[in-house]
Specification:
This protein has about 400 residues and is of the alpha/beta class. It has a domain of about 280 residues: Rossmann fold. About 30% of the residues lie in helices and about 15% in strands. It has 12 helices and 11 strands. An 11-stranded mixed β-sheet has the order 1-2-3-5-4-6-7-8-11-10-9, sandwiched between helices. β2 and β3 form a beta hairpin. α9 runs parallel beside α10. The longest helix has 15 residues. It is globular and about 45 Å long.
Length: about 400
């Protein structure tokens, strides 16, 4: 049944370029759960057993046994063959493994992450940007693609890159489409625990923690921000799928290709009804107009969802519209793009950027990495400029909640 549906969908995309079709098929296959096969019993075969040769252990000249391998975080290891080459920066680039203890019969969970901290001594605790990669990417892929470490070195913030395990998903996709994940379990719970540990261990500014993501990573970033508003001050979503309308790989794939029906508004209202004291979530949405993997209808529907969720805090009426012309010459070529911004006072609360001629790729990134476009605008810089004006007040403002109760959603 699944294969026949997938075949019918994929045949309907004949007008799309071959490259985009292949990309879509790969992402669809990555969403499908792997079938578990039960191996057939094998006949016992008796083989001749060869004697095992004794293994000699190397002993230092001093006669002391060699030390065990260190379990400390690794610093800038030599990249594997085919891995993107990261520029050498003066800051600290470390790999660690986080373990979340199991509860009851649930087993412990482990997740690898990378952390970049800029050089120099900070006069105050640094902000933290959490970066969630897309399908078929790793943490180092995403760091190279977005050039976020270079920006962090210039601006003085730390960057955290959780990396999905291939044991959890063969294509390293985050499970944003699962109901349990949308309720705050699974990947969301694990990454939230990593953020808290990194904040405390490295004395980062807990009021200035932001999350950004691409594609499946953006889908998860939206859920992380909504489920942990006291942990996340703002979110940046690049090529993100609509929130809360899927409950399976198949419906997740359908949302990427077609968006949702009117259910996307219901999903936002349902979330808000379950979070009556939600403090708002400033969000920047970036999407390519020519994206055929996560189609731009998702941008419209996500924007409508966050307009509902942030309605109590948006003070402006109609959004402020701006248009930016493209340029093909010079050191920084860019596509033309348009933005629409809703404000909470003087601070941007909801901002969308639709970029002409951009496909399913990080805008203004490293073109040597998949899902990355060299032509701007620079999405990393757009996100940081948006984040830098946001700070999470740990104690919610009672006046804001009283105001929210008296106002109606604009949609």
């Amino acid at each position: 049944m699944t294969k026949s549906l997938a075949s019918l969908w994929l045949k309907s995309f004949s007008r799309v370029s071959k490259a985009q079709q292949a990309q879509g098929r790969k992402l669809f296959k990555s969403l499908l759960p792997k079938a578990v096969r039960t191996p057939a019993p094998k006949r016992a075969v008796v083989k001749a057993v060869r004697p095992i040769k004794p293994v000699k252990l190397a002993v230092p000249r001093s006669g002391k046994p060699a030390k065990a391998a260190s379990t400390r975080p690794q610093v800038s290891p030599t990249p594997k063959l085919g891995a993107p080459a990261l520029p050498i920066l003066p800051g600290s680039w470390r790999k660690s493994i986080f373990t979340l203890p199991g509860e009851g019969i649930a087993p412990a969970k482990r997740l690898l992450y990378w952390l970049y901290q800029p050089s120099g001594i900070a006069a105050e605790p640094r902000p933290l940007v959490v970066m969630l990669h897309g399908c078929k990417q790793t943490a180092t892929d995403f760091a190279a693609s977005t050039r976020m470490n270079q920006l962090a070195e210039r601006k003085g913030f730390a960057v955290l890159y959780p990396q999905q395990s291939p044991a959890a998903d063969s294509h390293r996709c985050w499970h944003w489409y699962k109901r349990a994940t949308q309720q705050g379990a699974g990947d969301v719970r694990l990454i939230a625990a990593i953020i808290r540990q990194v904040q405390e261990k490295h004395q980062l500014d807990a009021s200035r923690t932001y999350v950004a993501g691409m594609s499946a990573g953006a889908g998860l970033a939206a859920i992380l921000a909504l489920r942990h508003p006291q942990l996340i001050a703002a979110a940046g979503l690049h090529s993100a799928p609509v929130y809360g309308t899927s409950d399976s790989p198949m419906s997740g794939f359908q949302a990427m290709r077609q968006g949702s029906t009117m259910a996307y508004r219901d999903a936002a209202r349902e979330f808000l009804a379950g979070q009556p004291r939600f403090p708002g979530m400033p969000v920047l949405l970036i999407h390519g107009k020519s994206d055929t993997v996560v189609r731009r209808v998702n941008l419209d529907q996500l924007s409508a969802q966050f307009a509902i969720i942030n309605a109590p805090f948006i003070t402006s009426g109609a959004p402020e519209l701006r248009a930016y012309p493209g340029r093909s010459a010079g050191r920084s070529p860019r596509h033309s793009y348009r933005s629409a911004t809703h404000y909470a006072g003087r601070r941007a609360e909801l901002m969308t950027c639709e970029i002409d001629s951009l496909g399913h790729a990080w805008s203004g990134g490293d073109p040597s990495v998949d899902y990355s476009s060299a032509i701007g605008p620079d999405a990393s810089l757009l996100m940081w400029n948006f984040f830098a004006r946001q700070r999470r007040v740990q104690a919610p403002d009672k006046a804001a909640f009283a105001k929210s109760a008296s106002r109606k959603s604009p949609l």
